[in-house]
Write a structure and sequence with these properties.
Helices cover 43% and strands 14% of the residues. The chain has 14 helices and 13 strands. Bound molecules: (2S)-2-hydroxybutanedioic acid (LMR).
Length: 393
């Protein structure tokens, strides 16, 4: 039977990990996959995670199955971190999921059960895996304008104009913060305008929050979620703990659903748990218990917030560093959008051909769209990087 298959193409983002690893050049730079890196180029386990893991080793008594919804103390802590007191919790449910991707996949199945004809509107561009993941699950997707590749700004008017034409009942996939790939988020006023159209058109916000704490801080980054939660009857939110807790491979996330009332919430909860059973049965436990240990301990939580702030500050510093280095080498080109962006990513703003030359001639790896992970920049490699970019411009 397998002779019917053709080899699948390498993943546009994850494929770069192997390509970069196989490159023998010592000066190579990885600006590909979205993982945080220190000034030394490492992706360490956070100190608070190590402490929480040690506690678990000492105290955890069982690895027996956990229920389809996962750990209640983790779900409650994540729900509070996401929504604070923006909405009546009687209308909310949160389940643990295997990372942001697992959460998106469960959401897709739920949408298909509830409203199979709905279209999910996604930003143009969006995270490279949104379309294969949600489309592969069976959802219909259509783009709304988001990023102006010439001016490096959000096309807010075009976005709103498109959303005003969307049929009632469709869903709008939004990035809560640190838009991936552009790094440009709507301002609070722009979020208000987006929310107004969503309410007016009776659309369902579907918010992916993969980087809470990486833009401005835990509360500021939840503005869109909390603001919309106060206005709409129904909403879907997916969270990831990959970046803000550095738990990438442990697969930790949540799926939260806001329903019109408590009765509807209970129905949705039963459906979501039924979906989980038919996909992966129960979620992985380890990373979620680590997060719950941290969030439910005031001291560990405070220490985590400091580590998170350090990661956030480093990303910001590296953007400034690269922008300065490019300004010195290529003053005729405007790279100021690097500094206007937030979080891990932004577009460098070069062509696919220039991206290919950066890889071939200089060992500088980034996604074909010229999305860069700013955590790959260090004080040691920024001059080499800026020289390479200036050379291909
Ligand atoms: C990214 O966009 O690089 C990250 O979210 C990792 C991934 O899974 O694509």
């Amino acid at each position: 039977m397998f002779e019917t298959l053709e080899p699948a193409p390498a993943d546009a983002i994850l494929g770069l990990i192997t390509e970069h690893a196989n490159d023998p050049r010592p000066q190579k730079i990885d600006l590909g996959v979205g993982v945080f890196r220190t000034a030394e180029g490492e992706t360490p386990v956070l100190d608070v995670v190590k402490i929480a893991e040690q506690r678990l080793v000492d105290t955890q008594r069982s690895k027996a199955y956990i229920g389809t919804a996962g750990d209640p103390s983790f779900n409650a802590a994540m729900q509070t971190m996401t929504f604070a007191d923006a909405v009546d919790t009687d209308r909310l449910m949160t389940i643990q999921a295997p990372g942001g991707s697992g959460s998106l996949r469960v959401a897709a199945s739920l949408i298909l059960r509830a409203r199979p004809d709905a279209t999910v509107w996604v930003s143009d561009p969006t995270w490279a895996n949104h379309i294969p993941l949600l489309g592969g699950a069976g959802l219909t997707l259509k783009p709304y304008p988001y990023y102006d590749t010439e001016k490096h700004v959000i096309r807010i008017d075009k976005m709103l104009e498109t959303l005003r034409q969307v049929p009632a009942g469709d869903l709008v996939l939004l990035h809560a913060c640190c838009h991936n790939p552009s790094g440009l988020d709507p301002s609070e006023d722009e979020w208000r305008a987006i929310a107004d159209v969503i309410v007016e058109r009776k659309l369902v916000p579907f918010i992916d929050m993969a980087y809470q704490g990486f833009a401005e801080g835990l509360n500021a980054d939840a503005f869109a979620v909390r603001h919309m939660a106060g206005l709409v009857p129904e909403m879907i939110v997916t969270n990831s703990c990959s970046k803000n807790f550095g738990l990438y491979r442990d697969r930790v996330g949540t799926l939260s659903i806001l329903s019109a009332d408590a009765t509807s919430r209970d129905t949705v909860y039963s459906q979501v748990n039924n979906v989980v059973r038919t996909i992966y049965s129960v979620p992985p436990d380890h990373g979620a218990v680590v997060v719950a240990t941290i969030l439910n301990d005031a001291e560990l939580k405070a220490a985590w917030r400091v580590e998170l702030a350090t990661m956030r500050a480093r990303l910001r510093e590296m953007r400034v560093l690269l922008n300065d280095a490019l300004e010195a080498r290529a003053p005729q080109h405007d790279f100021s959008h690097l500094v206007r962006a937030v979080g891990m990513f932004c577009f460098l703003g070069v062509t696919a051909d220039q991206v290919a030359r950066l890889k071939k001639d200089y060992g500088v790896y980034m996604v074909d769209s010229s999305r860069i992970n700013t955590a790959g920049i260090t004080a040691h490699n920024v001059n080499y990087l800026a020289d390479a970019i200036a050379a291909v411009l």
